[in-house]
Design brief:
about 425 residues, alpha/beta, six-stranded mixed sheet, 14 helices, about 35% helix, binds flavin-adenine dinucleotide
Length: about 425
């Protein structure tokens, strides 16, 4: 089973994974002189879909890796889509503020809106990142179909059914993410990834907000792995990542982090939007077969962050396989599954790191020792600032979890923390460390 001239490809979902798949496929097809009929189905960008309906709950950080990957595809994020260039993270732990400037200023990180801004936004519509990516795919020859796919059938080949039409495809690319009712599992034996529910809010940015800075919070409320406030021109996106958070995580977060949040706000922040999007916590059980392949969140994504980058990783590998090896299950097993599994394996390291960081922030002694060690780290030359790089990497997704894991188990740093714990006695306060 191979793609040939005039082969028909149905991409279900016009988020990053679907658009990257179309762009990779069409770029490569053009290079090899192949003409393909590529259609992206997604109701989210239709003519009358405005504001929050076009949104996709996401903090909207585009990592340096994602930007580099896009540049190599000839996709350059234009200034109106860029909300901020992020230059620093400030981390609040146990009453302390840790400032983490971008360790490598050459590696740009951006904030964007995935949709067109918060519900309460009244000004000019905001240029969204996803609409921009879709326009890039269309510019390369994809056709956009502003309709939801209602069903997938098999009639000697896959048939994509919308409310008004049926489209017989040679290849179906399932890029529908994890935030809609799955459509493919019955026939295609597709089992979507297990997910966790996150929490988001959108608030107005106070005038005194530090420029180009994301502020991150660890610790409370229960179940939160970390929370971030991401600047986007006049707004701040609040994203809480974790699992088994309480029934109203945003309110609990504002209460639990009252003191550090009070450093930026004179009154409790007023909500301009908000949602509880889902993130995949593990890969899908089966993410390819004859004439179909799942990419992006629908297959596997980086744990808690940088899903835009992993959407590109999976889309690139799946589309390269489709053109080079074929579109049957065996081709995807050989060419695509290893790339998807590498993302999943890397997440295992991420899981361990997030467990360790949660354990550290829940124990004031360990936190104090860690903060002390971080202060020592600050005095080291840039190439030896291991802990700063570790936190930066975990917050931004700028390095693989495996690399961060390797970095965090350097015997010298561990010995240093251990020695400090012993030296400071049984109940050190953070202050005694700092
Ligand atoms: C709270 C939170 C914060 C996050 N922050 C970041 C971040 O800062 N940076 C980052 O890189 N990642 C972040 N992520 C992850 C990121 O949002 C996802 O990994 C990324 O959106 C995955 O892209 P995708 O194209 O696979 O899926 P999606 O972006 O979910 O796109 C799926 C598309 O499919 C469409 N669709 C669904 N069903 C159908 C259907 N039946 N017919 C037609 N179309 C359909 C939807 O309308 C949607 O447009 C965050 C996630 C969450 C939940």
């Amino acid at each position: 089973m191979r793609l040939e001239n005039e082969s028909r490809v149905a991409i279900i979902g016009g988020g990053p994974a679907g658009c990257f798949a179309a762009i990779h496929l069409l770029n490569r097809a053009r290079e090899s002189g192949l003409r393909l009929d590529v259609r992206i189905f997604d109701p989210r960008f239709g003519g009358d879909v405005k504001g929050v309906a076009a949104c996709k709950g996401c903090a909207g950080i585009v990592s340096a890796n994602a930007l580099q990957a896009m540049e190599s595809l000839g996709v350059h994020v234009p200034p109106p889509v860029i909300q901020e260039v992020i230059e620093e993270y400030r981390v609040h732990i146990l009453g302390q503020i840790i400032r983490l400037p971008q360790p490598n200023p050459g590696r740009k990180i951006l904030s964007v809106y995935r949709g067109r801004g918060p519900r309460a936004h009244a000004g000019e519509p905001i240029d969204g990142f996803d609409s921009f990516l879709l326009a890039e795919a269309v510019a390369r020859g994809a056709a956009y179909v502003p309709e939801r796919v209602r069903a997938l059938e098999w009639q000697s080949q896959p048939v994509v059914r919308t409310e008004s039409n049926g489209f017989a495809a040679d290849l179906v690319v399932l890029a529908a993410g994890v935030n809609n009712r799955p459509i493919a599992e019955s026939f295609f034996d597709y089992t979507p990834p297990p997910t966790g529910s996150m929490a988001q809010d959108e608030i107005r940015k106070p005038a005194e907000w530090p420029a180009h800075t994301v502020v991150a919070f660890f610790g409370e409320p229960k179940g939160m792995v970390f929370g971030v406030m991401v600047p986007k021109k006049q707004y701040l996106n609040v994203s809480l990542l974790g699992h088994q958070m309480g029934p109203d995580p945003i309110r609990e977060f504002y209460q639990a982090q009252k003191e550090p949040i009070g450093k930026y706000f004179s009154a409790p922040p007023e909500s301009c939007c908000g949602c509880s999007p889902r993130v995949p916590l593990q890969p899908a059980q089966r993410f390819y077969g004859d004439r179909w392949v799942a990419v992006g969140d629908a297959a596997v994504a980086r744990l808690y962050k940088d899903g835009i980058f992993s959407a590109n990783v999976t889309a690139e590998s799946a589309m390269r396989t489709a053109l080079e090896l074929g579109i049957d299950a065996e081709a995807f097993r050989t060419g695509y599954a290893p790339a998807a599994r590498r993302v999943a394996l890397d997440n295992r390291y991420g899981e361990i790191l997030f467990r360790i960081s949660t354990a550290i922030v829940q124990n004031s002694r360990l936190t104090a020792a860690f903060l002390y060690s971080l202060r020592l780290d600050e005095r080291r030359p840039p190439q030896k600032k291991i802990l700063a790089r570790l936190i930066w990497g975990m917050l931004t997704g700028d390095e693989s979890y495996r690399e961060l894991f390797r970095m965090s188990f350097r015997p010298r740093e561990l010995a240093e923390i251990g020695r400090e714990i012993l030296r400071r006695g049984r109940q050190p306060s953070t202050d005694s460390f700092l």
